[in-house]
Every structure is written in C-alpha cells, then in structure tokens.
Known about the structure:
Blueprint lengths: L2 E6 L10 H8 L3 H11 L11 E5 L4 H9 L17 H16 L5 H8 L1 H7 L15 E3 L23 E4 L2 E5 L2 E2 L16
Antiparallel strand pairs: 1-2, 3-4, 4-5, 5-6
Helix pairs in contact: 1-2, 4-5
Amino acid sequence: EAIRVVRYSPDLSMEGKTLAQIAAAWKVDAADAYMRIVRETQPQEGKPRPEEGVIVTSMSEDDVRWFLAQPGIAFCTDGELKGGHPRGAGSFPRILGYYVRQQRVLSLPAAIHKATQLPAGWLGLRDRGRIAPGYVADLVLFDPATVIDRSTVQDPLAAPEGIPAVMVSGQWVVKEGKVTGALPGKVLRHFGPQS
C-alpha cells in the first residue's frame, strides 16, 4: 500500500495504482508484481527504455522534522515537475508553509538559507544563492503567511498558494500568479565548493 506506480509505460492502465492493487489485478502477490515491473522496464537493445515511476510513502514524520532542523542540511528535491509526484510542485512550499509557519520546526531565515546560499556554496555556484550585486536574479516572491503546497498524489501538478512571482535569470517566469512562458533557465555547472 505504500508503493504507488505513477508512470508505467508497459501498461498505462496500472498508472496511479498501488503495488497491492496491481498485484490484485494481475492475480499475483506483491513481490511477484514488483519483479514483473522490474523485468518489464529493463532496457532492451535497440528499443526505447520502458519508463516507470513510483511514489513510496515510507518516511517517518519525526525523522523528517529532525533532518529539516539540522543546521548543515540543505533542501533539495529529486522530483520532476511533471513526474507524477507531488514533491515536484510542492517540496519547497511545504517546507515554508507547513514546517516553518505551521509546525515551527525551523525559522524562516534558516529555511531560506538552506534552500539558497547553503546548497549554492556547496555546489560552487558562485553567482547564485544570494541577492547581491553580481549575482544572477533567481528569485521567488512568496507570502510567508499564506505559502503552502497543494499538490497531492491525485493532483501532483496543483500549484502552491502564496507564490505570486518567480524570476529565473532576471526574467519573470511567474508574474501575478500566472506562468509567463519565458524559459530562461539553463544547466548550471559545478565549480567546486566555496570557502
């Protein structure tokens, strides 16, 4: 029940189902269903690789709170925006709204530092992570009183609340709550940690 398949190109009818539901549909136990998914998504020479994506809900809320509060831990997500997982659209708004404002696990300045300057320094991104002359304007304007994630397993692309504007490389990509269509983002290269 804790494993939900959100992308499964060999059989699109299984997308959105839990492993238990897939096992029941295939009339096998969960272990056999899992192994079938693994087999059917292995690369085959000369063919495009079948895709799969899963959401696994196995984290302990106490562990999450502990990790978020640790000073040396930065925030990130491996979620892709259109990957079917709510973290693609919701990770950072959840930290700011739920863990900072509602649960008071850490302060707002600490959360902002862990999402900006701390990881930029580790990655050696010398022109990111701060608002200062010579730095690229990658900015998220949010209301600390209302920011919150709204994405769910059923609606992973639901936009967060309380984020009226986003700037990437000095260009608005979200303005007055609407996506502008601008795509100024680019791959950032690692230059080694800053001291």
